[in-house]
Amino acid sequence: MRVIQSASGVSRQRFDIGSLRELFPVLKQTVHGKKLVYLDNAATTQKPLSVIAELDRYYREYNSNIHRGVHLLSEKATAAYEGVRCRTRQFLNAASEKEIIFVRGTTEAINLVAGSFGRANVQAGDEVLITGMEHHSNIVPWQMLCEANGARLTVVPLTDEGEISVEEYTRLLGSRTKLAAVSHISNALGTVNPVKEMIRIAHDRGIPVLLDGAQAVAHQRVDVQDLDCDFYALSGHKMYGPTGFGVLYGKERLLSAMPPYQGGGDMIRSVTFEKTIFNELPHKFEAGTPNIADGIGFGATLEFLESLDWNAVVQHEHELLTYATEVISNIPGVRIIGTARKKAGVLSFIMDDVHPHDIGTILDQEGIAVRTGHHCAQPVMDRFGIPATVRASFALYNTKAEVDELARGIHKVIEVFR
Amino acid sequence: MSDLRALYQEIILEHNKNPRNFKKLEGATRILEGFNPLCGDRYTVYIKLEGSTIADLAFQGSGCAISKASASLMTTLLKGKSIEEARSMFSLFHDVVTGVLADVSFERLGKLAAFGGVSEFPARVKCASLAWHTMRNALESKTETVSTE
User: Fold this and answer.
1) I need a surface site. Which of A48, A115, A307, B136 has the fewest CB within 10 A?
2) Residue A38 forms beta bridges with which residues?
3) The domain spanning residue B52 has which CATH number?
4) Chain B neighbors of A376, CB-CB under 8 A
C-alpha cells in the first residue's frame, strides 16, 4: 500500500482501505467459520507487516544488548534503538530527545510520574485531580500516592453524555492541586476531552498536566508542544505497534528535577557502595535492559503512521463512527453509553434484557470481536448505573461493511433472546 | 447457531427470563455474596439450614443469562437436599461445565444437562459457576465475598 500523501484537504477517494487491509495479515482469517470482524481496537490494534518484519529482522540479524557493547551487533542495536527515540521525538514534536522516556506502556508511564514526580511534589494535604472517565491505570497510581503521602484525590464528575464540564474542572483546580491527570480520549466512552483548553486553565494556576494518551495516538496526530502538556503517556500496542513498549513524554525542566523511578543498570553513571551518580536524561528513568526488540518494532510503527494521510484517516474514522452510531442506535432496545459531542474510536452500548457478556459470546460466534465488561473503568460503569457495556472500537482498517456485520450480529442476539 | 443453541438452551433462556427463588430469603442462616469482577456479575445467595438440611434457598443480584439461569436452577435443585448432597451436586456441576464429564445427557444429569454446552465456551465457565461456588462457600460458613476470578 501507500496511502497517498496529500498536502492538504480531504482525500477520501485516495484512502484505499482495500490495500491498507492487505498490510494486516491477522484480518484475513475466519473465526468460528465466519470472516473475522475485529472491533476490539481500543484493547489492542493489529500490526502491519512492516512492524512484524522489523521484529523478525532484529532477532535474525542483530539481536544484542545496547548502550554497552563495543562489538558491531551492539552498535547496530544501539543505533536502531536510539534512532527510535529520535523518531518518537519527531512524531510527538517534543523539543528534545531527553524528553522521551521509553517504558512498557501507558500504565508504567503514569506509575513513573506518580512514583517520581508525585512522591517528590505531592505532600500531606495536597490534591491530585483526575476525571470521572479515567481508566484504572490513571486512577490507582494516584490513589496509592495519595494514600502514602496523605494527599487527596479529586475527581471531576461526568455529565449524562459522558463529558466533563470545563467549569467544574476549573472550580476543582485548587490552591493545593499539584497535578491534573486527564485522559485525552476516554477508553470506555470515546469522549475526546478539550485538553488544550484544560491545560491552559491549569497552567494559569501553575498546575502541571499529565495526559493519558493511550486511546488518542492511533486516532489523531499529537503535538505535545502545541498541547503544552507537561507529561504525555502512550502505549505502542494501541497504535499498531508491538506490546510491551510505550512512551512517557515529559518536559525536560520537570524530568530533570525528578528523582529516578527505578534503580539499576543503564540509569547510572557511576556506582560505589557509598554513592551512585545517576545518568542523564532520558536514561535516568530507564533502569535495566529495555525491551529492545519491541522498541525497534515501535520505530517501524512510527514509520507506518507517518506514511499515512492523516486527514484521510481522521475523516475515515469519523465517518465510520458516525455511521456505526446511526446504525446501532436505530436497533430497537439498544442504548449507546457515551454521547459526547466530540468522540473518537469507541462505540459503547447496552441492550434491554441482555447482559453484555451474552452479547459478546454471540457476536464472537458470528466472527465479531468486541470487548464486553467494565473496560478497566469501573467508576464509569457506576456513573451510568450499569455493570458493563459492549464496546466496539474502531481502527483505520475497519469498514462500513464491518459495521453492517455488527448490526447483523446484534440482530442475532435479539433472535437468540427473543 | 448450533453451538449457540447448545449454550443458550431453552431452559437457560427461560430461567434467565423468569428466575426462580429470586428474592431475599427471610430467616436465612447463611448469606454470602459472589462477584465476578471480569464481567461484573454479582449475586447474593441465601440459605436456610435446618440441621444439615437445606430447608430453603434463594438468590438476588444481576449478571449474564448463564450466571442467572445457573443460580436459578441451582436453587430449584438443592432445596430439601442435605449439605452432603449439595456438595456432591456441586462436584457434578463442576465436572459438567469444565468438560470433565463426557456424558452430559439428560438421562444422566437431569436438569444439569442444560449446562452441557458451557464447556465449549471457556470464557463462560466462571459465569456458570459463580452461584455454585458461592453456595458451597456459604455452606462452609465463609463470610468473604466469593470471586470466580
Assistant:
1) A307
2) A369
3) 3.90.1010.10
4) none
Topology given in CATH for the domain delimited by A52-306: Aspartate Aminotransferase; domain 2 (3.40.640)
> Which residue range forms the structural domain that includes residue B141?
2-146
- CA A233/CA A211 separation, integer angstroms: 6
Selecting from B8, B62, B65 the residue whose C-beta is nearest the C-beta of A387 gives B62
B22 close to A (CB below 8 A): no
At B43, is the secondary structure helix, strand, or coil? strand
State residue B147's pLDDT score.
65
C-alpha cell at A114: 506518580
Rounded Cα–Cα distance for residues B38 and B16 (Å): 20
Q: Which of A357, A363, A375, A382 is most worth mutating to test chain B (most B CB atoms within 10 A of its CB)?
A: A357
Per the structure, the count of domains in chain B is 1
Domain A12-47+309-416 listed as CATH 3.40.50.150:
no
Residue contact A381–B40, C-beta within 8 A: yes
Q: For A250-305, write each residue's pLDDT tens digit.
A: 999 999 999 999 998 888 889 999 988 999 999 999 999 999 999 999 999 999 99
Residue from B1, B2, B4, B13 whose CB has the most chain A CBs within 10 Å, to mutate: B4
Q: A327-346 as b/e, with b when 16 or more CB fall inside 10 Å?
A: bbeeeeebebbbbbeebbbb
Per CB-CB distance under 8 Å, the chain A contacts of B41 are: 357, 387
Domain boundaries, chain A: 12-47+309-416, 52-306
The 10s digit of each residue's pLDDT in A311-368 is 999 999 999 999 999 999 999 999 999 999 999 999 999 999 999 999 999 999 999 9
Provide the grid cell at A165. Answer: 464540564
Q: What angle do CA A134, A119, A246 make, to 5 degrees?
A: 50
At a CB cut-off of 8 Å and minimum separation 6, what does A269 contact? A277, A278, A279, A280
Distance from the Cα of A329 to chain B's closest Cα (Å) equals 22
pLDDT at A220 over 80: yes
* Interface contact B19, partner A, CB < 8 A: no
Give the residue numbers of A marked as catalytic. 376
Classify B99 in phi/psi space as left (phi over 0), alpha (psi -120 to 50) or beta: left
Enumerate the residues of chain A whose CB falls inside 8 A of the CB of residue B65.
Answer: 354-355, 358, 417
B64 touches chain A (CB under 8 A): yes
Q: What is the pTM of this model?
A: 0.93
Mean pLDDT of A142-150: 98
Scan residues 357-386 of A and list those with Cβ closer than 8 Å to B: 357-358, 361-362, 365, 372-374, 381
Residues 6+ apart with CB under 8 A from B26: none
Could you check whether the bond before residue A282 is cis, i.e. omega within 30 degrees of 0?
Answer: yes
The grid coordinates of residue A315 equal 475523516
Could you tell me how many residues make up chain A? 418
Buried b (16+ CB within 10 A) or exposed e, A393-414: bbbbbbbeebbebbbebbebbb
Which positions in chain B touch A354 (Cβ < 8 Å)? 65
